[in-house]
Amino acid sequence: MPNTFLKKAFDESMKQVGSDDKIKSDLPIEVAVHLDVILNKSESSKGVLTVVLTSLVYKSLNPDQDIRNHQTSIEKGYSGRTFDTKYITPFLKSVKFPAMAESGWLTRSLEQKVPYDKDYSGAIRPAALKTSFLETIDFIQKGNDLDKCLSYLMQGLIIKRNSQEIDLAKPLNLPIATIIELLIRHFNVSYVAEGASRLPVLALFAAYECLMKEAKRFDGKELLEIESHTSADTRSGRIGDIDIVDESGKEFEAVEVKHGIPITSQLVKDAFEKFKTTQVNRYYLLSTADIDNSESEKIEQEIERIKNIHGCHVIANGLINSLKYYLRLLSETSEFISNYVDLIETDTALKFEHKKKWNEIISSM
Question: Quick check: pTM over 0.85?
Answer without folding.
Answer: no
